[in-house]
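Figure 2 data, in text form.
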Amino acid sequence: MSLDLELRARRAGSFGAAAEAYERGRPGYPEAAIDWLLPAGAQRVLDLGAGTGKLTRQLVARGLEVVALEPSGEMRELLEVAAPQARALAGSAEAIPLPDGSVDAVLAAQAWHWVDVSRAVPEVARVLRPGGRLGLVWNKRDERVAWVAELGRLIASTIYMDETNPTVGPPFAPIERHDVEWRWELDADTLVDLVASRSGTITAAPAEREAKLRAVRELLARHPDLAGRRRLELPYVAVCSRTHLSAR
């Protein structure tokens, strides 16, 4: 395994160690993005790499039958509390423990960059019903705002794929793209948890991790758009992609 692949695998498996920070520090997704990702008439949906259930609980709230697939036991425990109506399963995109043709849609929120696409695509195609939909979404911080750009420089990572051009390929049709701009209201402690829940922070050496979190606290204390504020607004763009199974 190359160094890049080793690092990616280590980071992908790191989230359980910070499951509670992830639950506190990660936002959900704008409803307009979910509207666009879901196919009309969908009833049974697979949330792939569901984490602590940020997207899962929103899908359940729509009255959908939701299967939430998450490899981390620590993350899955919090998911089961947050979305008890969903069926939480251990597994991965490369080995989905569902029958052939059993779901109308597969959604992956903040997760597709961790999968082995060559193995995940055939598995997603297998569990989808004919014509079924694959939807991908990432919450991307809007760094057109000055303090958000500075935050981004503090927590920069080279792991992520280009969310605007995710790799899928056959047997899926060409990908459609759509962005939804939105804002998340949070407090300073939640922003620190957001940074603490990122894989690059989780896997850093203790001194590096503490230095990164200290830099975020200093940003909160000194930046004129943040200092002294009890509530903050973090601007995001929900970067959405969708595709469907081509005719077989």
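Caption note: The chain has a mean pLDDT of 90.
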